[in-house]
Design brief:
The chain is α+β, with helices and mostly antiparallel strands. The protein has two domains: 96 residues; 146 residues, no CATH class. Helix content is 32%, strand content 14%. It has seven helices and six strands, in the order αααααββββββαα. It has a six-stranded mixed β-sheet, covered by helices on one side. Strand 2 and strand 3 form a beta hairpin.
């Protein structure tokens, strides 16, 4: 969050209000629903003085993103008139009458252009989509894998969940450059578990570990910049078992997948047991 004023917005309450409001908009909620969510999640937990600050901060957040309504502006102005006469601190920060005046002038001035957000989607791919994911986290700077590509295919949606997530599998290969679809032929699926000898002793089963659902908790987690669409290909050779979960957080994802990749390098998956794990 940016520095909005001298102390008034540099506290956890103000940050929570802005973060929740932006998150609701990114989740596809309209302005009123986003506001209602914040009221339900935060306002009820506040004392009398914090509630006054709440309406001021909410009005400023809405003004900042070009979404302030006349109703909320009037409510904030009434509260600010009282706070200018009798300033109150927030979270031990001393707030002066001048600080409140500055906010009042802002929300009654020219409102910035309405800001549109990229809507947050927990399940952005179609079944069959194949993507190249570029390894990029700072933790991988000294790794020989830095800048190389992992290959991911969506094979299903999670069932019965709200929101739904993409169930994916990883190709057992790492590429120097974004490969063509033909370059993926002949590779099989990477087990998402360290190698154990013999593989049939892996619990719950090797089939279980051939896929996982990708959990996206915020729009910032989704590495859009590092994902490159290759092609949508009909899903084949999957076994209907349970599956684990993975996070899009770059370091934890890259570290996990490369650990599994190195663990299974040169090892065989029983083709009779699995029928075939090849994608193409």
């Amino acid at each position: 969050m940016g520095v909005w004023g001298k102390g008034l917005f540099k506290n956890d309450l103000a940050k929570d209000i802005e973060d929740l409001y932006v998150e609701a908009i990114q989740n596809g909620e309209d302005d009123k629903v986003a506001e209602t969510r914040i009221v339900e999640d935060i306002l009820q937990q506040l004392d009398k003085e914090e509630r006054m600050i709440f309406f001021v901060v909410l009005a400023y957040v809405q003004w900042k993103y070009g979404r302030l309504t006349e109703e909320n502006k009037e409510k904030a102005n009434r509260v600010l008139s009282d706070l200018i006469l009798n300033p109150i601190p927030i979270e031990s920060n001393i707030i002066t009458a001048k600080d409140y005046w500055n906010v009042k002038n802002k929300i009654n001035g020219i409102m910035p252009k309405r800001k549109e957000f990229v809507h947050f989607c927990t399940n952005p791919w179609d079944i069959g989509d194949i993507y190249a994911y570029q390894i990029h986290s700072k933790a991988m700077i000294s790794s020989p894998f830095m800048g190389k590509y992992l290959i991911i295919q969506k094979i299903a949606d999670t069932a019965g969940d709200t929101p739904k997530y993409s169930v994916v599998r990883f190709l057992r290969a790492v590429f120097e450059r974004i490969p063509s679809i033909d370059q993926l032929i002949g590779f099989d699926t990477l087990p998402l578990v360290p190698y154990i000898n013999p593989p049939n002793t892996i619990v719950p089963s090797i089939e279980y570990w051939l896929k996982a659902y990708m959990c996206i908790l915020s729009v910032k987690q989704y590495p859009r910049k590092y994902l490159h669409f290759i092609k949508n290909v009909e899903v084949r050779n999957t076994i209907d078992t349970g599956f684990d979960s993975l996070s899009w957080v770059p370091y934890s994802l890259e570290d996990a997948i490369l650990t599994f990749f190195l663990s299974w390098e040169g090892k065989e998956i029983d083709p009779i047991k699995l029928d075939s794990t090849e994608w193409l």
